[in-house]
């Protein structure tokens, strides 16, 4: 089969003549195929120079005609211009062209008008797509590899929402980002409109509608808990400035990670007050860990455990509350219709396990970062984003780190994990839940932890002094700052992140 490409200026009369001849050959010869390319006269020379340089051809006029040899492999075979194409048609097919000069000029004029209209239509269609601008900060982090397939699957924002993904990190990570971008393109996701990189700080978060903040490392040497806290301030101040300067006014910011999640969220809110109401911290990772431990104890799957509440500091001193926790599809003597559930505390008769073993297991996970790797972190962020855009399951309690307004007796102005539900593109704090009030002692301990973190980070106090606990409730997990200290310093020692100042 003969496959020819005819390219030329849209207003070129010789392109019009070659086009008419090629149309005739394609119509009358079963094994003759053509592909047409027109370029605006203003763009023709640049386009021709690029195509000739790419294929090592020597041609300078319109049209340019070549034969495709893709079935045999290799580049196309240059035929030449209109005269060479006419000679080829006469020699091989016994066909010539008798188009008059006047007709050539008329068709050339029509071709130019058609080309302009087609380009306008393409631009209009391009504007109608308007993809969602999603940015990932610290995109070189390991967890990013697990987040992207979830975003590209269509489950987070919906299959009808196209996304434009931008990977942002320091300049030293550019090679890593390029490799990641190539892998993303290989996914061939139907909702992924484009993938781009950004290592220029001043351009960060341009027109961003969604920003995902991952765990970062700092360029400073950190050996103490206090230095870890202070090292977060410069980067959060920079990110906040760039968000308010470059991002879309309705940007949604979601903060995830294993270390200082509440602190980073609070700092971003302080330094970016105009978008503070749209910044949240992910608590579903800790919630998932607690559900998994309960499920193993009850010999069921963690998907059957619902309504575990995480209070306080997501990556520090928190309170894992099982008082509203439910287990569905549980094998017991009492059965019920679909949707029937048992109380978790009512089914676990080993109160000693809840009071000691359960607490110790969660402490160990916080201490080592074990089981909170890329998969759990990515799933927690993606699920929280999905709920934000599509709503959380009806009747289900979700833990979320948000700014306290005094709910549940929690001091105002603290980024505090508490029970919420998502609906209509926002969240609602579940203040109407019965029997979930916390004792003043627990609230004071959790609040003191968060207040001190921020004061130390900003340099208002020199050292962190964890509050001494007198007792522990049977349904709580107290993960102290001693454990967080070891994890935080360890995390910072794995890599260095420039403060971009």
From TrEMBL:
Which UniProt keyword terms apply here? NAD, Oxidoreductase, Tricarboxylic acid cycle
Q: What name appears for this protein in its UniProt entry?
A: Putative malate dehydrogenase 1B
Where does the record place Acidic residues bias? 481-492
Q: Where are the transmembrane segments?
A: none
Organism from which the protein derives: Peromyscus maniculatus bairdii
A GO molecular function term, named singly, is: malate dehydrogenase activity
What gene does the UniProt entry assign to this protein? Mdh1b
Q: Where is this region: Disordered?
A: 468-501
Which GO annotations describe the biological process of this protein?
malate metabolic process; tricarboxylic acid cycle
Member of which family? Belongs to the LDH/MDH superfamily. MDH type 2 family.
Q: What is the lineage of its organism?
A: Eukaryota, Metazoa, Chordata, Craniata, Vertebrata
The record, for InterPro entries, names: Lactate_DH/Glyco_Ohase_4_C, Malate_DH_type2, NAD(P)-bd_dom_sf
